[in-house]
Amino acid sequence: MSHLENETVVTVTAHIIDQRVGQIVFSNPPRRNALSVDLLHALDACLADLAAQRIPVVLLGGKVGQEVWSAGHDLGELAHDRDPVAYGKPLEKVLRSVRAYPGVVIAMVSGSVWGGAVDLAMSCDLVVADRSARFAMTPANIGLPYTTSGLLRFFNNLPIHLLKEMFFCAKPLDAERAAHFGVINCLVEQDLLQSTALDMALGIAAKAPLAVRAVKEQLRILEDMQPLPVQALEQIAELRRQACASEDFSEGLAAFAERRQPVFRGV
């Protein structure tokens, strides 16, 4: 099964392992596996196909042994999109598809994970990683304000001070600390990553699929039960609007493209 293939640039492919486990592999080497719009659309289509086939467990990730699992958003596309993490955008759509998948999605992580790709990994039900894994939330580097829904995914899974460290400092969380705080369920050597993830997937696939699906959906609903007053939502929306429309955001994107440090002025 394949939804996007270009041998020189981007591939997103899916196949079935042992009739019970699916595996989706994405690759975009020239852009460090960046989550381009085309890649995200193809990823969403692969998830839909596997769900239609009632595959109870899915492994999701790039190729093992690459330096970068995913660089996150393709920043080259952000010049035309001032708010790439808003509701309805391709990344948010894929995150919802992962969280709503009628089975278990396991992120198989080899290499560093940046920005929106961290959200993708954390939206999966389980994370198996090798020791090259690192997780860095970098929106502050370019002036992009993260969404409330995205922050809640971190808020529900990380201690508050670690969450602030990741978003304020934008420095990578190494594999050992990530495992210590529960971001990684299983940390293994690189040569054991595929087999360990597959063993976990087959073990889950042998369980009662309707029971597993029911528990996953209950947990998703419970996690989403975060009522906020209308005034707070309006205030957050205005803060995000200002940041997305700011000169700082333009400066952040320009500095990234020019490979220099940005000069932020708070305007």
TrEMBL record:
InterPro entries: ClpP/crotonase-like_dom_sf, Enoyl-CoA_hyd/isom_CS, Enoyl-CoA_hydra/iso, Enoyl-CoA_hydra_C. GO terms for biological process: fatty acid beta-oxidation. Pfam families: ECH_1 (PF00378). This is Enoyl-CoA hydratase/isomerase family protein. SUPFAM superfamilies: ClpP/crotonase (SSF52096). Belongs to the enoyl-CoA hydratase/isomerase family. The keyword Isomerase applies. The keyword Isomerase applies. GO terms for molecular function: isomerase activity; lyase activity. The lineage of its organism: Bacteria, Pseudomonadati, Pseudomonadota, Betaproteobacteria, Burkholderiales. Keywords: Isomerase, Lyase.
